[in-house]
Write a structure and sequence with these properties.
single chain; 104 residues; mainly alpha; 4 helices
């Protein structure tokens, strides 16, 4: 099971890297020079940074927990995959935050 532990940890690292990449790709570039467009870009970058810090914190906690685990069970594998599935929705939530910043 040691090999599965290292592979699952690498898989989680890869998923989190893809999540961050997708969040960056959702930032729309400024096509026309105006202060309003640059303010919108700044808002999108700010929301990206908040989401990045959240995902980076999750990555750190995941790496710390996996360092403490000596033997991995199938239950841990299943729960980790479910956790990663929900974490993979982070780019969607980031996109929703950038689209609806004036609504509660």
């Amino acid at each position: 099971m040691e090999k599965i532990k290292s592979r699952l940890d690498a898989f989680a690292d890869g998923i989190m890297a893809v999540i961050i990449t997708i969040m960056v790709l959702n930032i729309a570039p400024v096509l026309h020079d105006s202060w309003a467009n640059y303010l919108v870009l700044g808002k999108h970058i700010g929301i990206f940074l908040i989401s990045f810090i959240f995902v980076a914190n999750i990555w750190y906690q995941h790496a710390t927990v996996f360092a403490e685990i000596e033997t991995i069970t199938y239950r841990i594998v299943i729960f980790d995959l479910i956790f990663l599935a929900f974490l993979a929705l982070m780019p969607l939530f980031t996109n929703m935050m950038t689209a609806n910043t004036t609504r509660i």
